[in-house]
C-alpha cells in the first residue's frame, strides 16, 4: 500500500505577502492624498453656511430697523452684532472679522471690481447697496454696485481653490 503524504505546509508565499502589502499601501496613499482636499471642502461648506446665516441675520436686522439699510452701516463695531455663527469662529478656529462697506457712494473697495482679494478666510464683508450680479450664484467675483435700498452682498474667502464667495440678498 502506498504511503499518503500527511505533511502539508500551510501559509503564504512571500509573493502573496508582498502583493497584499503593496495593495494596502496604494489604498493608504490614495486616502492620504485625498484627505486634505476633503477637509478643505468641508471647511468651505461650513463657510458657505456661515455666510448664509449672516445673510439671513442682516436681512432680519434691516427688517427690524424699518428697512433702513443705512442703520447697518452705522454699526460701530460689527463684531458686537454676533451675526456670523454661535462662536464667531471660522472652521479653522480663527475668529471671524466682519467689515461693513457701503457702495452707495461708490467709494468702497468691494464695489464694481472684477475680483478683490480677501485677506484670509476669517474676513467677511457685508457690502450694502451691492449684489452679486454678473457672477454665478456663489461665484468668485466681488459684489457690484446696486441702487436697491435693501440690497446687500456677503463676500468672503474660500480656500478650496474657488477663491471667493459672494452671496446676495436678492
List keywords for this structure.
4-stranded mixed β-sheet, two-stranded antiparallel sheet, 16% strand, alpha+beta, 170 residues, rod-shaped, single chain
Walk me through this protein's architecture.
The protein is α+β, with helices and mostly antiparallel strands and 170 residues long. The chain has one domain. The protein is built from 2 helices and 6 strands. It has a 4-stranded mixed sheet with strand order 1-2-5-6. A two-stranded antiparallel sheet has the order 3-4. Strand 5 and strand 6 form a beta hairpin.
Task: Describe the structure concisely.
By secondary structure, the protein is of the alpha+beta class. It has helices at residues 14-64, 70-73; strands at residues 97-102, 123-128, 130-131, 144-145, 152-157, 164-168.
> H/E order of the elements?
HHEEEEEE
In whole angstroms, the N-to-C terminal distance is 95 Å
Average predicted local confidence, pLDDT: 75
- Poorly predicted regions: none
Strand order of the largest sheet: 1-2-5-6
Question: What proportion of the residues form beta strands (DSSP E)?
Answer: 15-25%
Structural class: alpha+beta
Q: Tell me the major beta sheet.
A: 4 strands, mixed
Total number of β-strand segments?
6
Count of helix runs: 2
Number of domains: 1
Amino acid at each position: 500500500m502506498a504511503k499518503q503524504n500527511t505533511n502539508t505546509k500551510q501559509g503564504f508565499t512571500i509573493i502573496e505577502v508582498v502583493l497584499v502589502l503593496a495593495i494596502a499601501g496604494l489604498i493608504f496613499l490614495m486616502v492620504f492624498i485625498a484627505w486634505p482636499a476633503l477637509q478643505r471642502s468641508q471647511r468651505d461648506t461650513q463657510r458657505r453656511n456661515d455666510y448664509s446665516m449672516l445673510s439671513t441675520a442682516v436681512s432680519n436686522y434691516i427688517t427690524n430697523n424699518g428697512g433702513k439699510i443705512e442703520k447697518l452701516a452705522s454699526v460701530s463695531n460689527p463684531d458686537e452684532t454676533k451675526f456670523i455663527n454661535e462662536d464667531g469662529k471660522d472652521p479653522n478656529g480663527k475668529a471671524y472679522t466682519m467689515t461693513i462697506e457701503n457702495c452707495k457712494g461708490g467709494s468702497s473697495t468691494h464695489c464694481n471690481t472684477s475680483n478683490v482679494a480677501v485677506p484670509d478666510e476669517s474676513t467677511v464683508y457685508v457690502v450694502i447697496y451691492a449684489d452679486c450680479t454678473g457672477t454665478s450664484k456663489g461665484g468668485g467675483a466681488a459684489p457690484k454696485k446696486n441702487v436697491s435700498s435693501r440690497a446687500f452682498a456677503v463676500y468672503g474667502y474660500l480656500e478650496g481653490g474657488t477663491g471667493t464667495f459672494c452671496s446676495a440678498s436678492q
